[in-house]
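Before a colleague's protein record goes any further, I have to sign it off. Would you go through it and say whether the fold makes sense for this chain? Take the sequence as given and treat only the tokens as open to question. The record follows directly below this note.
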Amino acid sequence: MTMTDDLLSTRPPDLSDAQVTALLAQHYRLSGDLKRLTSERDLNLRLEAGARRYVVKFANRAEPRAVTDFQTAALLHLEGKGLPVPQVIRTTTGRSEVETPHGLLRVLTYLEGMPLHLAPHTDAQRAAMGAMAARISLGLQGFDHLGADHVLQWDIKQASALRPLLVHVPDDLRGLCSATLDRFDAQVLPRLADCRWQVVHNDLNPHNVLVDETSSDQIAGVLDFGDMVRTPLVCDLGVAAAYQIDPAAPLESLVCFTAAYHQTLPLTALELSLVPDLTTARMLTTLCITSWRAAKYPENAAYILRNFPSARAGLVALADLPRDDVTRALARACPME
């Protein structure tokens, strides 16, 4: 799967509420009110079944079965590890997934909390996110699956393939994006092979994270394991960090997040040196893919472009920082053992 083929180009499954209700009754003996949730690739709904809530997911039909099963297996692997992630609901026959003509059907528990993108941002919250990103990766250590090595354009290590999409980026950003990609190809990509690799979440953006409604500095839930992939561990840090940059204080916010991650899951010297470039590479990825997809699906542009403004502001802010200052600040905050 690459940026231009089926998964990013195929529309989500289209079922009526009556069809969804019938499938839930048949396979789960669940019933209740349905509410449609936003999604780029899949059909997701919230089910209100009395006092309990669930997320009903129909996978995009273009997604290989091994990839969907990979996500389910990861959630099963994380069960019992004390992490605030969805639990897989079994069918009446004990299965974790159901094949349907509309796409693979799964039902997960619904996590309560305030979406991170709606909450005020603080350094305490940023540090909590760094620690949570590290905890999720620690929980996934030792997990393997046949679907883990699929090619996903949102995976930072695939950034070189973004070049054809640069034409869709706004004119005033195209030069910076091109220079960012040049640096990635020359100085980052050749070093990734020497980093630690494992399965990672790969999408800790503010729409996939919940915070406590009474204390927004506490992380209450991590959602959407749909972009998981085996990749260098530090790439996952770069993904999460890209959404934690305060354009008014880019260095301080990057250091705050990275230090909290490092305290929970210590980085190697090589990994730490790659953090700034991997963070900007994720911002570049967001700008390129969302610009391309918004042009392709203008009716869904508002949703597709939801992370575009923060990626734009963050990339510009980080690009203005002297690289030596960033390196020294990260080294001070993340001492090696």
